[in-house]
Amino acid sequence: MSEERRRRTIVIGHKNPDTDSICSAICYAALKSKITGKEYVPGRAGHVNEETQYVLNYFNVEAPQLIESVKTQVKDIEIRATKGVNRNISLKKAWNLMQDAHVTTLPAVSENGVLEGLITVGDITKSYMNVLDSSILSKAHTQYKNILETLEGAMVVGDENDYFDQGKVLIAAANPDMMEYYISEHDLVILGNRYESQLCAIEMEADCIIVCEGAAVSMTIRKLAQEHGCTVMTTPYDAYTAARLINQSMPIGHFMKTEDLITFEDSDFIDDIKEVMASKRHRDFPILNKDGKYLGMISRRNLLGAKGKQIILVDHNEKNQAVDGLENADIQEIIDHHKLGTVETISPVFFRNQPVGCTATIVYQMYHENNVEIDKAIAGMLCSAIISDTLLFRSPTCTPVDKMAATELAKIAEIDMDRYAADMFSAGSNLRGKSNEEIFYQDFKLFNSGKISYGVGQISSLNADELTELKDRLLPFLKKPHEEHGVDMIFFMLTNILTESTSLLCEGEGAEDLIRLAFHMENASDDAEANVVELPGVVSRKKQLIPSIMIASEA
Q1: Engineering a disulfide at 503: which of 212, 396, 463, 494 sits with its beta carbon 3.0 to 4.6 angstroms away?
Q2: Taking a C-beta distance cutoff of 8 angstroms, is the pair 168, 184 a contact?
Q3: CATH for the stretch 141-249
Q4: Statement: residue 1 has pLDDT above 60
């Protein structure tokens, strides 16, 4: 919105987030907020899986906000904070507000902030042209307060909060005996200091008389006006000037546009509103929040300086794994432990990439490097991420640094790692009631190796029977994501944590042959299950499966 508001930075992991992706985002956002004093918020690019939810519940931490796209939205850019006005203010006041604020459009809003209409300079100009209708002031339901303000007048008899809503406006230029013929009941009469004229207007049941040139009003006229219910006010202007100005006291509500208003929400994407704005002749467009409350105005000029969301990527640097709309974002940093991928930035960024088993290990190091104390919840999440990514140190991706970090973090978090890991993995592999699609996309990533495109999903479990059941369910299901993603091959790793092995499900022409080539295996025996390759000792997608596929695909 306004540049006066500090821009926040979103810390976010990859799509189909795992425990490391979620926990590292939360913990790194907390670290950056502490050391910079600026606003860093964690986000997630997908559903929180059961394992991660167990971790968040255990340490009483709220899941990050779901962010489906980081495309630039209206809320990300500077808009004009044109203050909303009441629909009853006068045309003159609206004009003055426009001149002071250098705007051509004013929004009329209700007491609770809901947009009611728009008044433009053009609307005010048109109102001046309707000079032949002497009843326009009453038709507009004009409040006496507006008339006093416009004519810089003073109330002598009556209530400024009442309305002139019947009769016409006229100037008493004739003799009193002639005035009787053209003054009607409820009229508003502009006149001078002539006693007889004032008396005649009141006796003819005028609703209001305006005495010009600051003339005093006698006590007799005041008393008579009270008896007849006639409002009396004075103005320093002469009759000619008062007659010229009085129409400017009409409320903007009578002239403003209230139907078919073109509005945008602060959540709308800039790319979507550009076309609408280009097709309309309006200069300014109102911005509303999700509840319909008015926030400000936007014009084409605001779009010229549009800035993308500020983003920090954790646990990935592949564009096809990143949240949608990344090409519109302003990437500030990347914290990762995977191979270099395809993310492009428009300017140099802070990029920390280390060959460790978990992004959380890097985040742990950065807490120490910045002398920031790690509390129990942060320690618990970082430790959980390391346990998850390294399969409790069984994965070949695990390094001594990971184990050292997890050991220290476990002490701060006050957990027994073996017991906690068993419960966490059990929660993650509890797939009862989940559809095949939910299971498949729980931890799924897309890759490219040479000319081959493929996707790899993974489920890790301590329960061999559960993995066997999943194999029977997922094998026929793989055809669906294979077609939907348009890749050459689909693989799914069913990893047994206890035996440190994986049953790899394969889909796509040549998929099984590629895996056998990658792991130097003989052709399948006649009794081997089709589209399933057993990989003893293989538990890591990042360090074992993907590198082997990359080498084999280039052979």
Answers
A1: 494
A2: yes
A3: 3.40.1390.20
A4: no
- Rounded-to-integer distance, Cα 65 and Cα 52, Å: 14
Question: How crowded is residue 92: how many other Cβ atoms within 10 Å of its Cβ?
Answer: 19
- Which residue type occupies 76? D
| Residue 553 structure tokens | 């695909």
For helices 376-390 and 19-36, the axis angle rounded to 10 degrees is 140
Place of tokens 């964690």: 42
Mean pLDDT of the chain: 91
SS3 36: helix
pLDDT tens, residue by residue, 39-51? 999 999 999 999 9
CATH topology of domain 436-553: Diaminopimelate Epimerase; Chain A, domain 1 (3.10.310)
Q: Which amino acid is at 455?
A: G
Q: Does domain 9-72+309-427 have CATH number 3.30.300.330?
A: no
**Superfamily in which the 76-127+254-304 domain is placed by CATH:** CBS-domain (3.10.580.10)
| b/e burial code for range 409-440 (CB count within 10 A of at least 16 → b) | bbebbebebeebbeebbbbbbebeeeebeebb
pLDDT level of residue 130 (50, 70, 90 thresholds): low
